[in-house]
């Protein structure tokens, strides 16, 4: 469970884990052990942490934000060419105020992308999410850049989760196979207007209301000159995720909370952009298999029952059902 942390933990160099992540004996490496201990403490104390030394170039990270900003600066008519609709599988562009958190419109615009899959692959479970991603024609090379970034973020997330699996006392591959051997992913490219935002139809000025993420692990690529992401600690205080150049802000989601039997928390967070400048954030969400049945790992049932009255405190969930229910209630179409 999250603590009264006053700042987010920083894993200053995660590269020892990444260098050994394909080694079957990685758990015995001193550098890996040190990173695993840091991951364990960060996931227990905050559910959020920065990672540095992740191997994705700072140049690419910046380019992804820059090209996202270029898109959001286009005229609305151009952006609406890829308008999100239920018929498009909830993929594409949404205007400011169309995303809703707990009944209130969020003051951001976004492009939402999901891993593509063949029609009918998941039956009725996946029907609402079927369809190709809608990539804009402008700026040029948008799709190519994002696909490269998605590939790198997928690999990085898988490798961080191997460290988290070790931190929970399992093998490095606990999250693979039937849990996330074919991981679903979500990417949201988000633009927050500068403050004060004035629109007579919208009373709420929160960029994104308080929420937890749905899946396993999130990688947040945020502008380096604006502080807007806030994380709530156990005492109810909102702690700012101050940007660290070249880093990702990582956080764990609802599915990892269930798998860990509540040992790791999916922590509430929100976004309030008090800067007068437009803010860009690119969030990559690494998920379980779309049709995964998620319940606490056996190692967590056995290891963490003390004081809770029963060994399994979290009921199973089907990831795809969880995602679709959230998606269909989060958009004001």
TrEMBL record:
Q: Which GO terms describe its cellular component?
A: cytosol
Q: Where in the cell is it found?
A: Cytoplasm, Cytosol
Chain segments annotated as transmembrane: none
- Give start and end of each Fe2OG dioxygenase domain: 183-288
Q: Which InterPro entries match?
A: DIOX_N, IPNS-like_FE2OG_OXY, IPNS-like_sf, Iron_ascorbate_oxido_reductase, Oxoglu/Fe-dep_dioxygenase_dom
Sorted alphabetically, which PROSITE patterns does this protein's record hold?
FE2OG_OXY (PS51471)
Q: Which GO terms describe its molecular function?
A: 2-oxoglutarate-dependent dioxygenase activity; metal ion binding
Q: Indicate the principal place this protein occupies in or around the cell.
A: cytoplasm
Q: Which residues form a coiled coil?
A: none
Top-level taxon in the UniProt lineage: Eukaryota
Q: Which SUPFAM superfamilies match?
A: Clavaminate synthase-like
Per the record, a Pfam family? 2OG-FeII_Oxy
Keywords of the record, alphabetical order, are:
Cytoplasm, Dioxygenase, Iron, Metal-binding, Oxidoreductase
Q: Which reaction does it catalyse?
A: L-homoarginine + 2-oxoglutarate + O2 = 6-hydroxy-L-homoarginine + succinate + CO2
User: Hey, which family's this protein in?
Assistant: Belongs to the iron/ascorbate-dependent oxidoreductase family.
Protein name listed in UniProt: Fe2OG dioxygenase domain-containing protein
Q: Which organism is it from?
A: Brassica oleracea
